[in-house]
Amino acid sequence: QVQLVESGGGLVQAGDSLRLSCAASGRTFRSNTMGWFRQAPGKEREFVAAINWSGGSTYYTDSVKGRFTISRDTAKNTVDLQMNSLKPEDTADYYCAADPSPYGNIRASPIAHNYWGQGAQVTVSS
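User: That's the sequence. What structure does it adopt?
Assistant: Structure tokens below.
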């Protein structure tokens, strides 16, 4: 059974940092782009960041550029999201996802990803 499990969410104050981790089990994703998405209450799920299969290419939504960093450890089958200078508007459930297309380009659409974690809640107070 393939599973993606997020951890590291929590309640922080504006300006603080959090590090989300996603651990994959059941199969390796070393040939797949991995991404982070988020969904705030009453809003659609949106792309946050992605990293390609080699780790050599990353892509971020404009609102998190310079604050968030995505990384992966293919040996451990994990992908992390370091979030610095958090803002109240970053409050959301954060989801790890895998793009099934091997060695493909980064795709920001949620429908391009077919493996999803259960989500980690991040709340940033002002």
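The chain has a mean pLDDT of 96.
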